[in-house]
Design goal:
By secondary structure, the protein is of the alpha/beta class. Helices cover 31% and strands 22% of the residues. The chain folds into three domains: 140 residues, Polyamine Oxidase, Chain A, domain 2 (Alpha-Beta Complex), CATH 3.90.660; 185 residues, FAD/NAD(P)-binding domain; 105 residues, Orthogonal Bundle (Guanine Nucleotide Dissociation Inhibitor, domain 1). The radius of gyration is 23 Å and the shape is globular.
């Protein structure tokens, strides 16, 4: 790779400090570039739909069904799970991709030099232990046999079986040439830094204990269980960065942790994300003041373990490789199956379903594209949803890098000065701390213009992005290139909704969740935050709208 083009590439995606460190390490002339490819999600059908592709099935290609679920991500799979649990079998789930799960999908493959397969995530890789009020999620975990025995503690809170809790060490951060335990950089922190950290913790404690007149928490998972009191919702009108300023939090160490949290959960910086969402990240996961955040549940394949459970529950009702191209509402007085759904399979055969109900479990930006005669006010609401792009890369290592620079390898490994989120170690949950491994590297593209960043993402070729990933990680692991055999990359063009200021508690977001005749809506974006609990809630809610 040309040194100048490499410098420009790394400066653009990693920032000047990390790029400088990567450039100083150089590239050995004997280095052999790893194999790999771009994988998942399909962009072609989306571009064809944008250009007016609307095929029609032949008369003999139509089938009647009670419910069509459009989208096989967590929301769609949750809706299917709920219907099945209530004895409803007359439904079909149509998923565009060859694998279900959306950004919670996973895969598995053999480790280098081994015949034992290992799971790894392509997106979401953990969920916090739910609190006792989230009964639906607790029921799911019980069904997955993830609860301990006894399943609740003395306070009535669920207890997760130890093997499913994230194994220590959980996280570390690379800064000043070495690894440090945890995410907050304690090394070198002065008295003012530590005082501001304690003050921030007290503020999070205050919100964890806060209750409105109805007894609701300020922030809860799912958010529908939380408060809509003005004292809480007005936080949505300013950025998290502005909130920090108003609270006189000026410590660069604290601001970095808060910014990392915003990039990690929302794909945007503290200057782009609302203060409501920023505080939600910290307070919704803390049961009460003085308590630690809820323990994390993690599997080698991440939330793909939940997807696999849902998939088994859906059975043959799940149809993959089905690109929905059109949804049409008909006169309900004239026919029981008043909604027509058209889809094209991977062999370009056109299929049609006439349904009594549709659960639209796809992102809102697709609703005006796929649903004919979508109302103008709903179209305006859908346009208010903004989505960030992500690049997720899985690296196959034949052995671990030498660890002689501080705190030992953890599950989550973050590089302080990088624009990436670092990497997660798939084999960590297996208790294997040596030998071959798979690392999952996460990079949110946090530019202010989502469309321009998506265009830039699609213009990168595979080798350019792999160079970014390797250069990022080798700042902390100089021997990385000699150990990596393969790198596969997934591009998520609309990975997660962005809770920018004024959106989470906007009329647009709330109205988007309302049914349109017998079309019901279910997706994590309807909460304004892209979390498993929100997608699960909306899937269950939409299914209940049909059942009731």
């Amino acid at each position: 790779m040309n040194p100048i083009s490499r410098r420009e590439l790394l400066s653009t995606f990693l920032g000047a400090p990390t790029a400088l460190a990567a450039m100083s390490s150089g590239c050995s002339s004997s280095y052999s570039f790893p194999t790999g490819q771009f994988v998942g999600p399909s962009f072609e059908i989306g571009h064809k739909l944008r250009d007016g592709f609307r095929p029609r099935p032949t008369e003999d290609a139509w089938r009647n069904v009670d419910t069509v679920i459009v989208g096989g991500g967590i929301a769609g799979l949750s809706a299917a799970w709920r219907l099945r649990s209530q004895g409803y079998d007359d439904f079909v789930v149509l998923e565009l991709e060859e694998a279900p799960g959306g950004t919670s999908r996973s895969d598995q493959s053999n480790l280098p030099g081994q015949t034992t397969p290992c799971g790894y995530p392509w997106g979401a890789h953990y969920v916090p232990t739910p609190m006792s009020n989230n009964t639906d999620f607790i029921a799911l975990l019980a069904e997955m046999k993830a609860l301990a025995e006894p399943p609740v503690d003395d306070a009535g809170e669920p207890v997760i079986a130890e093997q499913f809790l994230c194994r220590d060490p959980e996280e570390r951060v690379f800064a000043n040439g070495q690894w440090h335990e945890g995410l907050y950089l304690m090394d070198g922190a002065d008295d003012d830094d530590l005082a501001q950290l304690k003050a921030f913790e007290r503020e999070i404690d205050r919100w964890a204990d806060w209750r409105d007149a109805a007894g609701r928490r300020a922030f809860a998972l799912p958010m529908a269980m939380g408060s809509d009191d003005e004292e809480v919702t007005k936080l949505d009108l300013i950025t998290m960065s502005e909130w920090l300023q108003r609270q006189h939090f000026t410590s660069e160490r604290l601001k970095w942790v808060v910014d990392y949290a915003c990039r990690d959960d929302y794909g945007g910086t503290a200057e782009q994300i609302s203060a409501w969402a920023g505080l939600f990240y910290f307070a919704a996961r803390r049961r009460k003041s003085g308590a630690e955040s809820q323990p994390l549940i993690a599997w080698p394949e991440g939330n793909g373990r939940i997807v696999d459970h849902f998939r088994a529950s859906a059975h043959d009702n799940l149809q993959l490789g089905m690109a929905v191209t059109e949804i049409t509402r008909r006169d309900r007085a004239a026919a029981r199956h008043a909604v027509e759904v058209v889809a094209v399979d991977r062999d370009e055969r056109v299929h049609g379903w006439k349904a009594s109900h549709v659960i639209f479990a796809a992102p809102q930006f697709l609703a005006p594209v796929l649903i004919r005669d979508f109302p103008e006010d709903r179209t305006r609401a859908a346009k208010a949803f903004e989505y960030g792009s992500w690049m997720v890369s899985n690296l196959w290592l034949k052995d671990r890098p030498v660890e002689d620079n501080g705190f030992s390898l953890a599950w989550d490994n973050v590089i302080h000065d990088s624009r990436s989120l670092g990497y997660v170690v798939a084999t960590h949950q297996k208790g294997v701390d040596w030998g071959a491994s798979i690392w999952t590297h996460y990079y949110p593209l946090c530019d202010d213009s989502p469309q321009s960043v998506r265009n830039r993402m699609l213009k990168l070729d595979w080798s350019e992005w792999v160079e970014v990933v390797l250069s990022d990680i080798e700042v902390a692991h100089p021997d990385l290139r000699s150990l990596v055999e393969r790198v596969d990359v997934m591009r998520w063009g609309h990975a997660m909704v962005r809770p920018r200021p004024g959106f989470v508690w906007s009329r647009n977001r709330r109205e988007a969740a309302q049914p349109l005749d017998t079309i019901h809506f279910a997706h994590t974006d309807l909460s304004g935050v892209a979390l498993f609990e929100e997608a699960f809630h909306h899937g269950v809610r939409a299914a209940d709208e049909i059942i009731c």
